[in-house]
Amino acid sequence: MAQQDTDQQHAGVLPVDDEGFVIDSEDCEEREQAYRERGTSRPITVVGNPVLHKECKDVTEFDDELLKLVDDMFASQHTAEGVGLAANQIGVDLKVFVYDCPDDNGVRHTGVVCNPKLVELPADLRRLDDSNEGCLSVPTAYMPLARPDYAEVTGQDERGNPIKVRGTGYFARCLQHETDHLYGYLYIDRLSKRERKDALRQMAENEPRYPVVAND
């Protein structure tokens, strides 16, 4: 069993713990910097663009083109000062997201998930947190949204290896938020009509601090 675990760690981009979850909290600064320095920052697609409102295509080719996309996503996320970014937020119709996000204990997590699926949690793990949430595709707007304060996601890394990622607090919110993106949902779609209108008003009244793609 120990040798099998070691082999799995060597096969994947990130090592895994005893429960099979990626260890994404080590060497975050070095890994994030390497990604973004290889990448090119792209403008962020904002609410109203059709690519944000439909389910993205599965990743089936784990090739150099995908690796370049991941690098560009980290570069774009860094420019926008975000903690997570989905591929459709830079106009790419693929189920990929990247993250560089702290949890509520201040532990930094950095990684990549392709073809993510949220694990349905048992009732005893569904403690809701109604903190504010924002989105790079709804710039300058923030609204409270109740989400479970623990999340697990399954998927693949950028090399196609199967992975499991888990998080608590703010990082759990990030995992849920980015997975939502890839299935065509923005966080404002989970708000009431009144709250959604308020978020869009906030967006209209302020200027984003990063380049965005204007909707025609």
Automatic annotation (TrEMBL):
<feature type="active site">
    <location>
        <position position="178"/>
    </location>
</feature>
<keyword id="KW-0479">Metal-binding</keyword>
<dbReference type="InterPro" id="IPR023635">
    <property type="entry name" value="Peptide_deformylase"/>
</dbReference>
<protein>
    <recommendedName>
        <fullName>Peptide deformylase</fullName>
        <ecNumber>3.5.1.88</ecNumber>
    </recommendedName>
</protein>
<feature type="binding site">
    <location>
        <position position="181"/>
    </location>
    <ligand>
        <name>Fe cation</name>
    </ligand>
</feature>
<keyword id="KW-0408">Iron</keyword>
<keyword id="KW-0378">Hydrolase</keyword>
<dbReference type="Pfam" id="PF01327">
    <property type="entry name" value="Pep_deformylase"/>
</dbReference>
<keyword id="KW-0648">Protein biosynthesis</keyword>
<comment type="similarity">
    <text>Belongs to the polypeptide deformylase family.</text>
</comment>
<feature type="binding site">
    <location>
        <position position="135"/>
    </location>
    <ligand>
        <name>Fe cation</name>
    </ligand>
</feature>
<dbReference type="InterPro" id="IPR036821">
    <property type="entry name" value="Peptide_deformylase_sf"/>
</dbReference>
<dbReference type="GO" id="GO:0042586">
    <property type="term" value="F:peptide deformylase activity"/>
</dbReference>
<feature type="binding site">
    <location>
        <position position="177"/>
    </location>
    <ligand>
        <name>Fe cation</name>
    </ligand>
</feature>
<comment type="function">
    <text>Removes the formyl group from the N-terminal Met of newly synthesized proteins. Requires at least a dipeptide for an efficient rate of reaction. N-terminal L-methionine is a prerequisite for activity but the enzyme has broad specificity at other positions.</text>
</comment>
